[in-house]
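Narrative of activities, Objective 1.

The group set out to show that a structural description can be obtained from nothing but a protein's sequence at a throughput compatible with the screening campaign. Below is one input-output pair from the validation batch, recorded exactly as produced.
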Amino acid sequence: MSKHLINPIYSFETIKENFLLYVKTAFGTRYKSDDPEIDTFEKRREELLNKDGVFYREPWLEPILSYATNGNTIDKVDFDNLLEKNVKDKFVSFAKKGILRGDFPLYAHQETMLKNALSGQNCIITSGTGSGKTEAFLLPLFAQIMKEAVNWSQSNYRSTEWWKNGLNATQTFDDEGKLTEDALQRSGEKREAAVRAMVIYPMNALVEDQMTRLRVALDSDKVLKFFDEELNGNRIFFGRYNGSTPIAGKVTKENRYYKHKLLEKAMKAIDENTDKLARYFELKKDDFSEDDKIEKRSFSKDIKAQREECHQKCVRDLICSKPHRIS
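Output recorded for this entry:
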């Protein structure tokens, strides 16, 4: 992904070539030849589609000045006693393993946002495209959660794939609509279950983009190792709640049979998609660049994480949603 962000011309050429390849593949004809000297229908069509104003327009680029920075990486930020030393040390270590990959200085507005939010102020960030707004609001959110997380006791998470074990509706949900001990996805957790943050987006497209970012920040291999070694094995759980959330809504004693059937079907579909994805990546593994491999791991986690999103009774620390879904 990084090469697309750094080189917009490369991004444009890649998108254009992919669409042209789709046209040639989906609407191929017999009027073609491997000899470039032979004039064919497909050759003329490709030449026509490759003209500006026919199939695409050449991109217009607007250079912008770099955003101001104080030159401070996250470990050089002076928190002015806003965080206790042990909280600061773990927060910095956590941030550098996920949300702030690379030893880059924070923008001045990111640093200001972090300090002001931690001091208890209500903050708004209005900087432009590519200015790191996501980091600007997630860093103080994670720092606030870390204040509590450093005191969480040891957790020993256990989960079960009940949809493979033949559990029926009453074995999966109790009379109050809660998951039974046999179906819990996070049994063995010692800390208090609570929603600690809520992020609301106006469009599903933003939710999808941010979920990918959150998986890098909270579910990448280095971050999971940090959770095991520095937070007593505890995790910071997150999920989305929108129109694509499987089996949303309250489970009751009366509707649990219907909800169980839908949930079982959704879980099996997720397993099937995960297996297909794994086989595809194994088949194509030699074709992937390092950037592709990072995206593949994130996408694989995205598919697998839908399992827990199906279980709306598993409380997440962080929820992403749309305004009309919150009531």
